[in-house]
Amino acid sequence: YNSAKMAPSPLITLLVLLGVAFVAHASDPDILTDFVVPPGANASVLDGAFFTYTGLIADNSANPAKFTVSKATAAEFPALLGQSVSYAALVFGPGTVNPPHVHPRASELLYVVQGPLMVGLVDETKNELYAQTLQTGDMFVFPKGMVHFQFNGGEHMARAFSAFGSASPGTVSLPVTLFESGIPDAILEKSLHVDEATVHALEHDLAPPAPAPAPDSPPAPKNGAASLVPACFSLLVGFAAALLL
């Protein structure tokens, strides 16, 4: 028996330590207290209200023709700091979509309260789409950092709740990142293989809505850019996958 042959090499030891460190940093850091008191708050006067959040209560005034999301992350609910968990309520009007996006700091577990709801994610290593139409009561997991979307193609409202493995999962919307971040048009044209007019139309369509005109002002001319968004949907997903390779 030669004990020297069984001793791990310094390189193996280093790789193991690096692997442990990677896992340790893969989620929110552990805290040394039961919970975190936000800066400026007085821990001696905290009560049950600090651990309560009512921001997910349904807003009946919301526009049913839009996709809306109500979040409960550390930004909205400070009691979540250090707890490695957050939540979101998703409401989809008929024909609405939560555009392709990623959560860079957490996986997402979605539960459909009212279906059907189409969901999908892209495996960037193979540029392959995994899509599924979920019914009421179904669940779907979106691994951390993977491009994904949800779409209500039905004629009725769809609702879902999402749980995240981080108090601050982050959201990076691909359309907004590509067309509202100031990337030069020439870069987008070459990357997406589209012309300048298409890029400008998409930028116009994604821009915040203009203020309503005064009563005596003529209505602004309509722009048909919205019709270009479905045509470029696959381009966005493909470009995002290329960025992640």
TrEMBL record:
Alphabetized UniProt keyword annotations: Apoplast, Glycoprotein, Manganese, Metal-binding, Secreted, Signal
Annotated oxalate binding sites: 98, 103, 108
GO (cellular component) term, any one: apoplast
Signal sequence, renumbered to the chain: 1-26
Record field: transmembrane: none
Pfam name, any one: Cupin_1
UniProt main location, coarse: secreted
Residues in Cupin type-1 domain copies: 54-200
Gene Ontology terms for molecular function: manganese ion binding
Locations listed in the record: Secreted, Extracellular space, Apoplast
Ligand binding (Mn(2+)): 101, 103, 108, 148
Keyword Glycoprotein assigned: yes
Record-stated family: Belongs to the germin family.
PANTHER family: GERMIN-LIKE PROTEIN SUBFAMILY 3 MEMBER 3
Subunit structure: Oligomer (believed to be a pentamer but probably hexamer).
Entry function: May play a role in plant defense. Probably has no oxalate oxidase activity even if the active site is conserved.
Protein name as catalogued: Germin-like protein
The organism of origin for this protein: Aegilops tauschii subsp. strangulata (Goatgrass)
